[in-house]
Design goal:
heterotrimer; A alpha/beta; B mainly alpha; C mainly alpha; B: mainly alpha; MetI-like fold; 9 helices; C: mainly alpha
């Protein structure tokens, strides 16, 4: 029985009725002998915030990296807006421009200022003029609350500030969907909040987001759909209330209790 | 281009003795540089303040002057100043050791200062004396870290012995030149020389790498 | 023992010319060996087996040969190989450039490899092509990493130019030795030679130290 079908009837998902933005069909990926993804099937609706949770090594990050082609899948299919994703590097490069990714380690380019980091996508990839790129970059830095840090280098910014610049950098490409790979895992507790707030605002503005995270409070409050993964497979998925308050699968319950999540 | 390697074979004995000298000079220079350079490096780290300036001056000077110049000066000019005439082999030994000792001293200094102060603090906390700490805790770890650099110093030493040819040390390079001059087949002679030196130098770095990989964990703190 | 130090002043012009040639040799060699090293490094890092192996072999060969031997061999081989009678200075530059390119390629390779994969990932995630990611993100950072090492290599090269004196290229070492033979003023000329190299080399060595402090690896 297809669990996602029952879920859809019981809890109407956001964007229901419209075709999914991203569709994963039996996606498989291995690294040598290690099976990272063993047949993942799920979908992401427009405007939805999907949170991927699960123990380390469960394949959450791998699934994210397969979505924008940083890893190429071995088997199965991924569709973006109804079109199959290409299996070659160059084809994926064009698709990547429609997706934005935010990394756990921020990965800002240290030799460029905050402004330079945000503008580099539009300038190099979209081939916008320098002026247009800079205008767009300033607007985005303002949006994430860092307009005054435009001329600072990453080494002069705190972790939370760097991650916000990284979000602005991804947004500069005007993506249809944003991918977050444990965006707050490398941050001090004090700065986690400022990043989550930016993500929350993005969600409220209707951005489609896939977020790999350990921040259960975020998943509970901002997430529209939670997918629990373990050992390369989806073991449960549903709306946050159901997953956190009444998990159906034992392994989910175990995982949540290990995190100290008491509901 | 037709190659005729027979001159090489004819002079094989002659060349082989040259090779023996290359290896002897390399080994002796290496030992002397390690001893002198080690002493200088440690003196720089742990010695009295007034000693540092002259030692740094010596090290930086040797870094600035080509080994060719040091060799030539030691062989031709030193006798005039000191009245002591050194036969070519010994002149080369002195020159090479003096030159390379400077690099060894730098490596020793860098190796010792790479050991975190926390290590020495831990040793003192156990009640060790300064000398014990240096001997038991700092040096062993530092030596492991310095291994790759020493490997490249050995490689450089062997290559520098070839320059000793210009001061008439009858090592392999010098003998190759002699045979090349007599036989009018310089290309073949030097090709063989390239193979010989490569076969000596290539394993040296590889072996040092292998030894380092085995021991590296001992120096990680 | 009588010394005549005036021989140095009397031949100052020749010594200056020799010094100029030393500098020219070093500059020309580096001008070839930096792009040469980059090409070799990129070949080594490319996924293409043939290119990678060719580059690795070239580098291993020239790192494991005494430079003076390469100079002599080039001196005898090049006229035969090219069929031209080349001035020794060209041979000298070729030998030096081959040698230094090999060292530079290792420097660049280590520099490029030291840039975290995450940086390339971030560039790709923005939709950059492999070439764009290399040119915009990896290389600029790698350049900062390699600068101190390149400076060190330059200082070594500067000293190694003395070796082309053995094939009669008129740089500083050759000129000094020649004047020594002509005037029989051994101590004076050899000491002058050492001093001139020292005066040129000492500031360079100090500059390298400064570069290491300024650009030293700090994540």
């Amino acid at each position: 029985m297809n669990t996602s079908e029952t879920e859809r009837h019981a809890h109407p998902r956001k964007g229901a009725g419209a075709p999914p933005v991203v569709l994963y069909r039996d996606v498989r990926k291995r690294f040598g002998d290690f099976i990272a993804l063993s047949g993942v099937s799920m979908d992401v609706r427009k405007g939805e915030v999907v949170c991927l949770i699960g123990p380390s090594g469960s394949g959450k990050s791998t699934l994210l990296r397969c979505t924008n082609g940083l890893e190429l899948i071995d088997d199965g299919e991924i569709e973006l807006d109804g079109t199959l994703l290409p299996r070659d590097w160059e084809g994926m490069r064009r698709v990547r421009q429609r997706m934005g990714m935010v990394f756990q380690n921020f990965e800002l380019f240290p030799h460029k200022t905050a402004l330079g980091n945000v503008a580099i996508g539009p300038m190099t990839v979209l081939r916008m003029t320098r002026d247009d790129s800079v205008t767009r970059a300033r607007a985005l830095l303002d949006k994430v609350g860092l307009a005054d840090k435009a001329d600072n280098y990453p080494s002069q910014l705190s972790g939370g500030q760097q991650q916000r610049v990284a979000i602005a950098r991804a947004l500069a490409m005007e993506p249809e969907i944003m991918l977050f790979d444990e965006p707050t895992s490398a941050l001090d507790p004090e700065t986690v909040g400022e990043v989550l707030n930016v993500m929350k605002r993005l969600a409220e503005e209707g951005m489609t987001m896939i977020v790999v995270t350990h921040e259960m409070t975020f998943a509970r409050r901002v997430g529209d759909w939670v997918v629990v993964m373990e050992r390369g497979a989806v073991i449960e998925q549903g709306p946050p209330e159901q997953i956190f308050d009444a998990p159906r699968v034992d392994r989910t319950r175990e995982f949540l209790s290990h995190l100290g999540w008491s509901g | 281009m037709e190659l005729d390697f027979s001159p090489v074979l004819d002079s094989a004995q002659f060349l082989l003795h040259g090779l023996e000298l290359t290896l002897a000079l390399s080994a002796l220079s290496m030992l002397c540089s390690l001893a002198a350079g080690g002493a200088i490096g440690l003196a720089r780290c742990y010695g009295p303040q007034w000693l540092r300036w002259p030692l740094v001056f010596y090290i930086d000077s040797m870094r600035s002057i080509p080994v060719f110049v040091v060799l030539v000066w030691t062989y031709f000019a030193l006798p005039i100043v000191t009245g002591v005439v050194l036969p070519p082999f010994w002149a080369a030994l002195v020159a090479l050791s003096a030159h390379i000792a400077a690099y060894v001293a730098e490596i020793v200094r860098a190796g010792v200062s790479s050991i975190r102060p926390g290590q020495t603090r831990a040793a003192f906390a156990l009640g060790m004396s300064r000398a014990q700490t240096i001997r038991e805790i700092v040096l062993p770890q530092a030596l492991v870290r310095m291994l790759p650099a020493f490997g490249s110093i050995l490689s450089i030493t062997i290559k520098d012995t070839a320059i000793a040819a210009v001061i008439a040390v009858p090592e392999y390079m010098n003998r190759s030149q002699t045979v090349a001059g007599q036989s009018f087949h310089p290309i073949e002679i030097f090709m063989v020389a390239m193979v010989v030196y490569f076969l000596i130098l290539f394993p040296v770095t590889r072996i040092v790498d292998m030894v380092y990989v085995r021991l590296a964990h001992l120096g990680r703190s | 023992m009588n010394f005549d130090w005036s021989v140095v002043w009397r031949n100052a012009d020749a010594l200056v010319e020799g010094t100029k040639l030393t500098i020219l040799l070093a500059v020309t060699t580096m001008a070839i060996a930096i792009p040469g090293g980059i090409v070799l490094a990129l070949m080594r890092l490319s996924g293409v087996r043939a290119l990678s192996a060719a580059s690795a072999s070239f580098v291993e060969l020239f790192r494991n040969l005494p430079l003076i031997l390469v100079i002599y061999t080039a001196y005898y081989v090049m006229p035969v190989a090219t069929g031209l009678s080349l001035p020794p200075i060209i041979t000298g530059i070729v030998a030096l450039a081959l040698n230094v390119s090999a060292y530079n390629s290792e420097t660049f390779r280590a520099g490029i490899a030291s840039i975290r994969q995450g940086q390339s990932d971030a560039a790709f995630a923005l939709g950059m092509s492999r070439w764009q990611a290399t040119y915009e993100i990896v290389l600029p950072q790698a350049v900062r990493r390699v600068l101190p090492v390149l400076a060190s290599t330059w200082v070594s090269l500067f000293k190694d130019t003395s070796l082309v004196s053995v094939i009669s290229v008129g740089e500083l070492a050759f000129t000094s030795m020649r004047i020594r033979s002509q005037t029989f003023r051994v101590l004076e000329m050899l000491t002058a030679m050492a001093l001139i190299y020292w005066m040129l080399g000492y500031p360079q060595a100090k500059f390298v130290d400064w570069l290491n402090r300024r650009f030293g690896i700090s994540e």
